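Discussion board: Methods & Data

I've been asked by a reviewer to show the raw model output for two of the constructs in my manuscript, not just the figures. I'm not sure how much to include, so I'm pasting the format here to get opinions. Each protein appears as its amino acid sequence followed by a line of discrete structure tokens. Is this the kind of thing reviewers expect to see in a supplement, or should I convert it first? Here is construct A:
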Amino acid sequence: MTHTCRIRASARSTFVSSLLSSLLVAGLACLVACGADAEGLQTDATGDAGGTGAGEAGVPGFDFPGANSDGGLKPNPNQGANGGTPEKVCGLETIPLERLPAELLLVLDRSSSMVNDRLRDNQSHWQVTTTAVDAAVKSTQGGVLWGLKMFPSRTGCGVSPGVEHDVAVNNHIAISTTVRAATPGRSNGTPTTNAMKAATAYLAARATPNPKYILLATDGEPTCFNGNASVRASDTPAALQSIRDAATAGFHTFVVGIAAQRPSGQPLETLNAMAEAGKEPRAGDTKFFSVSSETELTTALGAIAGQVGTCAFPLSKAPPSPDDVAVDVDGQRILRSDSDGWQYGPNQTSIVLHGPMCEKARAGELKNVKITFGCPGMVIL
């Protein structure tokens, strides 16, 4: 004998109305909290309230459960097969940040003039360079990731691909040892163009969010024209273009001229043009770092390291809503600004402080930096 169970229309209507009222109240509360609009609430033709899936209106990651015909909850379309809680992709989240050190690749001239020419104290350019590199890298390696590329790589005009030492933390001993053992030959040219091309290719291949720079230290006119073996054929136009290409790729170049204004040294105009092409010129008539002693070279290298290494902070993930974030430094909210505030680094994988705020970071005056992610339109207190 077949039995049927019927619910009177009035009772069913009361049940559905009650269920929808409860769900609408819950849904509107979620919408207010999460910044969604009313289009996120949907019901199907039977009167059941449908869940908000990843491809529907509403805020991804916040669930709006529905009811099955038996009174139970519908499966959550955002939930994994194991029934675990879905990952939120939008919500209020505060993350402490740690400083992101810069990568600084030293591109070091080892042409013949580095051993043939001498400074006022009768030391060769190479002698003061080895001592200055040792001191500068040792004192700054805690805040800067140093790497080394020397040119030429061998006698004449040859430049090998890659670098002598990868950019890395605590690289002082490795770099200093290699530089001291690499005394230039008496017939070495100055293949600046190919050295810059190799440096640019190396940095471009590094998949790291760190800001990247080149430090070009040289004492001679770029030679080895068109990559040939002539150590005296001037190659200045191509060298300038290689520095511009590095800047276009995102790698600015600081230029240090060793004994640049002595009669036997590098012409002032060429190094000025190099510094401007590298997008890091100094103020005044002399655009590059001009040094003529061990002390001046050590100071210049240290100043460059301090200038690049302390203003970027990495993000563990990109913000879900890039325009709805807040950055606080030592409890103070700072604005998004190029003059005195913060901006995103490449691909929004870091934030970079600018202006006086950056100077405070360089001086070690900042203690706590944090970023708060919010939903679209969410007011972050």
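Construct B, same format:
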Amino acid sequence: EKRVARFIEKHQIDAEVVLLADENYSAWTEKIDSSWYGALPATLVINAQRRKFHMGAYESYEELALEVLPFLPD
């Protein structure tokens, strides 16, 4: 928890950050996405209308932007 807090502060992250510290990951992974088995990295992008789950790393910033930008308000 302290390491995450220091990282957030160091990188001046303003977005809400949720830390799942439960070691019993099988109890909550399906609630995030039924196809997810707990592998990292994983990204969940949500807004009021929809959600997008991506398992694995993005190859580039551009690839990430293509998935995130449609979720941002016009």
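Answer (T.O., handling editor elsewhere):
This is acceptable in a supplement if you add a one-line summary per construct. For B, something like: The CA atoms of residues 29 and 44 lie 12 Å apart.
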